[in-house]
Design goal:
Helix content: 40-55%
Strand content: 15-25%
Shape: globular
Strand order of the largest sheet: 1-2-3-4-5-7-12-13
Number of helices: 15
Order of helices and strands: EHHHEHHEHHEHHEEHHHEEEEEHEHEEEH
Oligomer: single chain
């Protein structure tokens, strides 16, 4: 199969005046202060402590330094920021007693956003389940799901005058797959495809419950969900490779898209789910007809979908045992992903990849946006809520700018695909670089940097990278700048 790489020719394209040029963060990755002001423990605290490898404190100390980071947003014409609320900072046990210091912290954060003209897009859950609720079963527990709904309702009411854009869950597919199949996210189970799909099913349903509650309360803001959507292609034109791509797609994309954007699971989707589960000698999940009423109601009311896109995947047929080796060190060529009942990821020789083996294929972003536009007609607004490149940035002194030209090329190539999508009539209304500043990375620690702003983790001082100045020009002119 010849890989299709279309070159998009820019024709004096200008992004719309109301387009958001944002930077993205996540509470646990940037705040630090994991034990301050009554904050409860989340699943990563226990997991990282037991692993003894990565310390999430102080990350980039956003908990104390958010005014500095928001001032940088204002200075560099970044007019939106993705932040998340750490559930356990407000409810240390996930439910029950509320911590007023946590509540007040987010009031202060949102107030500063407004002062600097930076629109906050606020995520309710970004991988940081309270440990007390994980102990009760996490996404497989009805108690956890009910507590999530109540926590969401509290946030909607508390911050109604400060937040206009809400996101229910960030990358539920990343959580389910890495918690129950690859074992790279806590609680680090492996090969439990049935539990993975059960968690996915529950995430879709609780998302829908939260959307419906928000709309029923009559709030005037908007609410959506963010999916990590890595476009899947067959490695060749063989029927086996095509089917492997379909299986991978349903595991990582389509089951979520059907549940949240269509409000129902197609027969084709459920047949592929069953095939994966039964190939691993596990029991098919229970799909309840009454749940689809909840899903459909939410899908019809959903204001937007956020797309986190970093790379694409190329699949070939595979019938052996599951073997997953996660590249968490940045040693290129060490990633392995073969799943029983699914297929094997391969790395095409003619495509570049990051040091963490993420295949760089900008065309995949456009293809994914077009897929949503074509296949899910209820969607009428999209955002690129994360896109960026992990890189081993080199700091050579305060008097020298951090030269991250490869990141600029990555961003430019993907922004061209966003422009192409908009010109094709696809309703993309904003773009958020992952990440605003360097921060803690879930499975990679501090060596994998994504930020527009370099953080010296010893001093916590911020330095604008070359990419920050490029992005500033983009935001100012609303035209994609060249690479110097």
């Amino acid at each position: 199969m010849k890989i299709r790489q279309e070159v998009y020719q820019m024709q004096q394209f200008k992004f719309p005046k109301d387009f958001y040029f944002g930077g993205a963060t996540a509470a646990y990755q940037c705040e630090g202060a994991t034990k301050e002001d009554g904050k409860g423990e989340v699943i990563w605290d226990k997991y990282l402590r037991e692993q003894g490898t990565i310390n999430p404190d102080p990350a980039c100390d956003f908990y104390h330094r958010y005014p500095e980071d928001l001032d940088l947003c204002k200075k560099f014409h970044i007019n939106a920021i993705r932040v998340s609320i750490d559930w356990a900072r407000i409810f240390p046990e996930g439910e029950g007693k509320m911590e007023p210091r946590g509540v007040e912290y987010y009031h202060k954060l949102f107030k500063k956003c407004r002062e600097d003209g930076v629109e906050p897009f606020v995520t309710l859950h970004h991988f940081d389940t309270p440990q007390a609720l994980q102990d009760k079963g996490g996404w497989l527990s009805q108690e956890m799901l009910d507590a999530f709904v109540e926590y969401a309702k509290f946030c909607f009411k508390e911050y109604a005058d400060e937040v206009r854009y809400w996101i229910t869950i960030n990358e539920p597919t990343s959580m389910a797959g890495q918690q129950y199949v690859s074992g790279t996210f806590p609680p680090a189970y492996k090969d439990q495809f049935d539990k993975c799909f059960e968690a996915e099913y529950n995430q879709n349903l609780v998302h829908a419950r939260i959307v419906n509650a928000y709309k029923e309360a009559g709030y005037t803001g908007q609410i959506g969900i963010v999916h990590a959507l890595q476009t899947v292609y067959p490695a060749t034109d063989s029927e086996g490779d095509k089917h492997a791509a379909e299986l991978k797609d349903v595991l990582e994309n389509k089951f979520y898209l059907d549940g949240t954007l269509a409000g129902k699971y197609s027969k084709e989707t459920l047949a592929l789910v069953r095939e994966i589960i039964e190939a691993n000698d596990q029991k098919m999940i229970d799909i309840k007809p009454e749940d689809e009423k909840v899903l459909l109601k939410a899908a019809k009311q959903l204001d937007f979908v956020g797309v986190n896109y970093y790379f694409s995947k190329f699949m070939k047929e595979y019938h052996g045992a599951t073997e997953i080796v996660h590249n968490g060190t940045g040693k290129k060529g060490t990633d392995v992903n073969r799943m029983k009942g699914v297929g094997e990821e391969i790395h095409p020789k003619d495509l570049p990849a990051t040091d963490w083996d993420w295949i760089i294929y900008p065309q995949g972003m456009y293809d994914q946006l077009k897929r949503i536009y074509d296949d899910y007609p209820l969607v009428h607004s999209m955002y690129i809520t994360e896109n960026g490149m992990g890189y081993k940035d080199k700091f050579e002194g305060e008097d020298k700018i951090v030269d991250d030209t490869p990141r600029i090329k990555y961003l430019r190539d993907h922004m061209e695909q966003v422009a192409k999508a908009i010109e094709s009539g696809i309703p993309v209304n904003g773009y958020f670089v992952w990440s605003l500043q360097d921060m803690f990375s879930w499975t990679n620690g501090y060596s994998k940097r994504y930020g527009l702003f370099y953080v010296d983790f010893k001093t916590q001082k911020r330095y604008a990278k070359k990419s920050a100045y490029w992005y500033k020009e983009l935001a100012e002119t609303r035209e994609i700048p060249p690479i110097d």
